[in-house]
Amino acid sequence: MELVCPAGTPAALRAAVEAGAHSVYCGFADETNARNFPGLNFSPKELAEGVAFAHKHGAHVLVAINTFPRAGDESLWHRNIAAAEAAGADAVILADMGLLAYAAKNHPNLRRHLSVQAAAANPDIINFYGREFGVKRVVLPRVLTVAEIAAINRETPEVETEVFVFGGLCVMAEGRCSLSSYATGKSPNMNGVCSPATEVQYVEEGDELAARLGDFTIHRVGKDQPAPYPTLCKGCFTSGDQVGHIFEDAVSLNAQDILPQLAKAGVTALKIEGRQRSRSYVAQVVRSFRAAVDALAAGQPMPQGALAALSEGQATTTGAYAKTWR
Amino acid sequence: MTSLPTLAPPLSRLVGLLPKPPASVALTLLARRIAARHSEIVGRLGTHVNASFALDPTDLPVVMILTLPAGQPRIRLQKDASGADCRIAGKLSALLALVHGAVDGDALFFSRDLVIAGDTAAALALRNAIDNAELDLLEEIQHVAPPLARALAPIAAALERQTGVALRRASGVI
Predict the structure, then answer these.
(1) Are the Cβ atoms of B174 and A14 closer than 8 angstroms?
(2) Which residues does UniProt assign to the signal peptide (chain B) (predicted)?
(3) Is A5 marked as binding a ligand?
C-alpha cells in the first residue's frame, strides 16, 4: 500500500521522503489549503524544488488545494492549481465541486484526488466524482468502519481509496464542521484554519493550564495532565450534570495494528495526518509506518511502534474503524 | 513531563553571573549570522516579524528577548519575560532539541515540557520557521567564531553522548 505523508515545510518534505514516504502531500502558504498555519507551507518555488527532490528519490507529491473558494475570489484557487501543475505535482487534492470541474476542464492531465473535506462516504457519491470529474482517488472521512470501507471499495472499482491511519481526528462530517467558525469566525473549510492560532491563548492559572479560543475557555488541565489542542471538539465542557469531553476525547488515531484489515478491505493508500507538525514528528511516524507497510507486504506481523508520545493526549485510538466510541 | 535533562544548578548559576550586555551582543551577532544564512526564517515569520519573542530556558536565570527590527535579529538578555509579545519556555535541553529538530514541538507541548504564552500565532510562526531551517548551532558558531567552534566541537560531542541533549542537528531527521 502507498504511504502518503504530511509536509508542512520543505524540510519536512525531505524528512518524509528520506524516512520512506511513497507520496508526500503539502499545500501553498495561503488559505487554499486546510493547514494554513503561521510559518507553514510552500511558495511555488519551494514546491517545485520539493517535487524535484521527491521525484529524484522516487516519491510523489500531492498538493492539497482543499478549501472552498470564496465567491468572487476564485482566482487564487485557480492560480494555485496551475502552479501545482507547473511545479510538476503528481496530483492535486480538491474538495470543492466547482474547483474539480475547473481543474478537469483546464488541467485535464493533472491527476485529481478528492479531499477528505468533501466528506464522500458512500459508493454513489464516489462514483459520481469519478464519472463527472475524473477523480482517481478519494480520501475517505474518518467516520467509517473497516466493513464500510470494504463495502465502498467493492462498488467503486474505478476510484482508489485513501484512509487516515495516524494523527489528529475530526469526528464531524469533514468539510461541514462549523465549530471553529462559531468561536472565531474562521474555519478550515473557508480559511484553512481550525481554531486559528491568532485566537488561541494559553494561560497558567495556578497549577492549571487554561486554553482559550476566542471568548471561550475550552479546557483546563492540571499540572501533570497532557495538554490537548485548543480545538472546540476536544474541549472539556459541562453538560447537564456531566463534565467531560462532550464531542471527542483528546486522543489521536493510530491504525497501525489494523493495516492488514485495511489492505483486505481494498484500500490503496494510507494517510498520515500532521502537516502542522515538525520534521522530527514526520520522520518518526513515517519511519514507523513504512516499516509496518513493508512488514505487511512481506507477510510479517505488524511491528510494535512507540508513537503515543507524539499523539494528542499522549493516547491513541483506532477511531471509527472499530466503532468502539462511547 | 518527559525525562529531558535539567541543567546542573552550578552551571546555571555560572550563566547567571555572565554580564548581560556583552552576552547580548554576542548572541545578537550569532542570530544575525543565522538569519543571513537562512533568510527563509524571516520570510516564514511573515507579519509576526514585528513581534517580540521571549525565549525562556526555565533552568537558567536569564531570558532571551528576540526582536527583529527591519528583519535584523536582536537579542537582549534579561531576567524575565516581561514586555515580550509571546513566551516560549522549557528546559534548555528542550529548547535546544527543538532548534536541532530532535523533538516535536507539539509533543513537548502535550507533555507540558514546553509552555507557550501570549501571542500563540507568533510563537507558532517562529517554531515552524526554525524547524524548517534545519539549524545546527555549532555550524552557525563556526561561521562567526571558527576557533570557538573547533574548541566546542569535542565538548559538545561528549556532552551529547553523556546527557542525550541535542547539541547538533538531529541525525536521521533530514
Answers:
(1) yes
(2) none
(3) no
CA dist., res. A224 & res. B106, Å (int): 16
3-state helix, strand, coil in chain B (%, to 5): 55, 15, 30
- Single-letter amino acid code for the residue at A318: T
Let me know: does A231 contact A195? Beta carbons within 8 Å: yes
CATH classification at residue A285:
3.20.20.70
Ligand-binding annotation for A26, yes or no, is: no
Residue A183 shares a structural domain with residue A158: no
Q: Range of A197's domain?
A: 179-244
Chain B touched by A203 (CB under 8 Å): yes
- pLDDT, tens digit, for every residue of A60-108? 999 999 999 999 999 999 999 999 999 999 999 999 999 999 999 999 9
Interface with B, mutate which of A208, A209, A279, A280 (most B CBs under 10 A): A280
User: In this predicted model, what pLDDT tens digit does every residue of A244-300 receive, in sequence order?
Assistant: 888 888 888 999 989 999 999 999 999 999 999 999 999 999 999 999 999 999 998
Length of chain B equals 174
Edge-to-edge order in the sheet of strand A216-221: A200-205, A208-213, A216-221
Q: Could you tell me if residue B103 is inside a domain?
A: yes
> What CATH number corresponds to the domain at position B47?
3.30.1050.10
What residues contact residue A10 under an 8 Å CB cut-off, 6+ apart?
A42, A46, A49, A50, B132
Whether the CB of B1 is below 8 Å from some CB of chain A: the reply is: yes
Enclosing domain of residue B30? 9-135
Beta strand B74-78 pairing with B63-67: antiparallel
CA distance A279 to A157: 35
The C-alpha cell of A33 is what?
A: 489549503
What's the structural domain count of chain B?
Answer: 1
